[in-house]
Design goal:
Blueprint (H helix, E strand, L loop, with lengths): L2 E5 L2 E3 L5 E8 L4 E10 L6 E6 L5 E3 L7 E6 L4 E6 L8 E10 L7 E4 L3 E5 L2
Parallel strand pairs: 2-11
Antiparallel strand pairs: 1-3, 3-8, 4-5, 4-9, 5-6, 7-8, 9-10, 9-11
Length: about 120
């Protein structure tokens, strides 16, 4: 069984920073793409950033250079450094990963439970 556990969310003032972490644990052979999504109340879940196994990162347009995704392959961990946070960034942030396990012939997609980010003065 694979688990993704996020941490690092919280309350921050506009213009502040947060660093989210997501650790994948369990019987993992290898981890492919890892990503962060967010979902604000009443809105659909949307992609924030994705990083592939080679370290190439892509971002949603709304990020506008404020966020940086990174990963530690050896630790099966992905990070999201968020700077210059805005009230409209308030959302639950979810970790997502494609992971290859011993009991599957193809990578499966997994989600974390989410961590709340609230940007407010």
């Amino acid at each position: 069984q694979v688990q993704l556990v996020e941490s690092g969310g919280g309350l921050v003032q506009p213009g502040g920073s947060l660093r989210l972490s997501c650790v994948a644990s369990g019987r993992i052979l290898s981890t492919y793409d890892m990503a962060w999504y967010r979902q604000a109340p009443g809105k659909q879940r949307e992609l924030v950033a994705r990083i592939d196994s080679g370290g190439t990162a892509t971002y949603a347009d709304f990020v506008e250079g404020r966020f940086t995704i990174s990963r530690d392959i050896a630790k099966n961990t992905v990070y999201l450094q968020m700077n210059s946070l805005k009230p409209e960034d308030t959302a639950a942030f979810y970790c997502n990963a494609n992971i290859y396990t011993p009991d599957s012939s193809y990578p499966r997609n997994y989600w974390g439970q989410g961590t709340q980010v609230t940007v407010s003065s």
